[in-house]
Amino acid sequence: MDKSIIDIQDVTKRFPVGDTEFTALRNINLKIEKGEFTGLIGPSGSGKTTLLNLVGALDEPSDGKILISGKNVAAKSDEESALLRNEHIGFIFQSYNLLPVYTIFENVEFPLLLQKMGKEERKKEVMQALEWVGLADIANKKPSQISGGQAQRVAIARSIVKKPDIVLADEPTANLDSENAYKIMDILKKLNEDLGITFLFSSHDSKVIDYLKRIISLEDGKVIKDETKR
Ligand SMILES: Nc1ncnc2c1ncn2[C@@H]1O[C@H](COP(=O)(O)OP(=O)(O)OP(=O)(O)O)[C@@H](O)[C@H]1O
């Protein structure tokens, strides 16, 4: 049996542009195993974000299919896609997407509100996630009171609070200085090693690339190289 957690089968993605179409991804075939720490690398416009969005069921392939733990993402209704995202996939973006009027605690708690979970258990899970990123002591602050590095750590806590199988990280260090970028990558590597979360990054930051165990290079919507470090 195929043990891939992400199985991308002959995926093509076209976007309508005026009267014509633009092909952002062409016949992509990739298998990612549970526990991988892998990145999509390539110049701006090569299709990295488009592919992450398809894997995260935020968008659908034009052709081909994507299986997450053996289940076809694209064949699902919007409601089922939302459920799949909610239960199995966490997202980290380059802009941290925190809700400014809520506290750090409430921002991390947010994904759990969609699940049937009591208040005390929610509190335990939120504080555990904040401890993972070293921010338990600032749970009551608002996003405007913390630094960019801390905001990205809050976003990481939010992405892992549901204990997802997969975290998709789109340029997670793009807005950070070197010190904070390394700190973020150390945290993500530890989450990968200790919790077994599968990571798929998109990046052109060498600081991210240095940490990756497998580097998939994209160019003009095609995979041009796929290397695993020994
Ligand atoms: N909704 C859309 N409609 C039309 N074209 C799109 C759409 N989304 C993406 N594209 C095009 O698809 C190509 C791939 O974009 P994508 O954002 O995936 O690249 P990327 O490798 O993530 O780039 P970057 O590093 O700049 O984020 C680009 O040429 C982009 O303009």
From TrEMBL:
One Pfam family linked to the record: ABC_tran
Species of origin: Flammeovirga kamogawensis
Entry keywords, A to Z: ATP-binding, Nucleotide-binding, Transport
Ranges for domain ABC transporter: 6-230
GO MF, any single term: ATP binding
Superkingdom assignment: Bacteria
PANTHER family: IMPORT ATP-BINDING PROTEIN
InterPro entries per the UniProt record, alphabetical: AAA+_ATPase, ABC_transporter-like_ATP-bd, ABC_transporter-like_CS, ABC_transpr_LolD-like, MacB-like_ATP-bd, P-loop_NTPase
Coiled coil location: none
Name of the protein in question: ABC transporter ATP-binding protein
Keyword Cell inner membrane found: no
Lineage, opening ranks: Bacteria, Pseudomonadati, Bacteroidota, Cytophagia, Cytophagales
